[in-house]
């Protein structure tokens, strides 16, 4: 199976000394899964919308099933010139286009954004997380909510604060991977055949 | 620093239960390196030539240096309808275009292709490895030759034979990563600043 992961720096695994991120950790030991990690640092959902399909198409083959996982929202919530880089309504429009477009390719799953250190960004990301969860429910796309568990644990943000203010280290990424891989929706997502 | 890795399944890390491949293993512990692993299984140098620049451009930023590593050749050497998927002259033409094009973006390094189980493919890959080494010398692109060490060790091909005939497991990928990361050209490549 080919697993394509689209999203921002947390998907790419920025700051992980093991270069796995939560995605690589969530499929540890599964040799039969070929991972294409297509996370890009600082990318917004608007930028992702412009490139995901071309990159997915180049990695699709007719002889092996594909799965697509998305995780974004933090970069949209950052301020630029006093306003979020992408407004909530626009993020939701982008998310709808991404998810429905990807569903035409393959089974799709969304993992919600993690918390970040900056309180303003974090509050906007939390609101976006709830809105993305509701959108996914309407589209019948499985959604794995990691925001509250990561924030409550404190490890994620403590590691981020000790590094660059945004990205955790190995333990934080492992915690996010554990939340994802223990979720029944993830198990259905990567266990199933075509 | 952003490290972009372009190539085929060995770059992508097919069969590695740890989902690192040799690239992830070669930068283990280096948190400051953001890895963009853009290997695609079965891809030839002709297909890579058509897509590398668009994908590199989307991952380039003006505030952080970039490095580009290439590794290809095995898929070109596979037979299709009785002839190699890409003829040697064409591979070299593609390689020249890839390397000179990428040098306009960032410092570039090439890692030669590893051996494969099929004797015919392996012999053609070995010849291609020598030709790519010579081309890189002419272009002054550092080239790390892993073919003979991996073949002589036997581990790479033993692991491949025990899996899918082409791809090793964790130990094989680690051996290739060790060859790469111990090479002075690799250390210069990832140590340097802009």
UniProtKB/TrEMBL annotation, chains A, B:
Question: Membrane-crossing residues?
Answer: none
Taking every annotated instance into account, which residue ranges of this chain make up the domain SGNH hydrolase-type esterase?
Answer: 5-174
Q: Which domain of life is it from?
A: Bacteria
Q: Drop me one GO molecular function for this one.
A: phosphatidylcholine lysophospholipase activity
Which protein, by its recorded name, is this? SGNH hydrolase-type esterase domain-containing protein
Biological source species: Phenylobacterium glaciei
Taxonomy of the source species: Bacteria, Pseudomonadati, Pseudomonadota, Alphaproteobacteria, Caulobacterales
């Amino acid at each position: 199976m080919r697993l394509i992961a689209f999203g921002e720096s947390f998907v790419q695994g920025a700051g992980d000394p093991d270069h796995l991120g939560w995605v690589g950790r969530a499929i540890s030991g599964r040799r039969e899964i070929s991972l294409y990690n297509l996370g890009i640092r600082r990318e917004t959902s608007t930028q992702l919308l412009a490139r995901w399909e071309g990159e997915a198409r180049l990695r699709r083959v007719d002889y092996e099933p594909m799965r697509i996982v998305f995780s974004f929202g933090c970069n949209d919530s950052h301020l630029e010139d006093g306003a979020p880089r992408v407004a909530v309504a626009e993020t939701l429009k982008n998310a709808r286009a991404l998810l429905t477009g990807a569903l035409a390719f393959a089974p799709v799953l969304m993992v919600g954004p993690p918390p970040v250190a900056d309180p303003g960004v974090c509050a906007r990301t939390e609101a976006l997380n709830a809105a993305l969860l509701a959108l996914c429910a309407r589209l019948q796309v499985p959604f794995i909510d990691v925001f509250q568990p990561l924030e409550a644990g404190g490890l994620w943000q403590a590691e981020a604060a000790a590094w660059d203010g945004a990205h955790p280290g190995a333990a934080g990424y492992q915690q996010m991977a554990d939340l994802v891989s223990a979720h029944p929706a993830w198990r259905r997502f990567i266990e199933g055949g075509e």
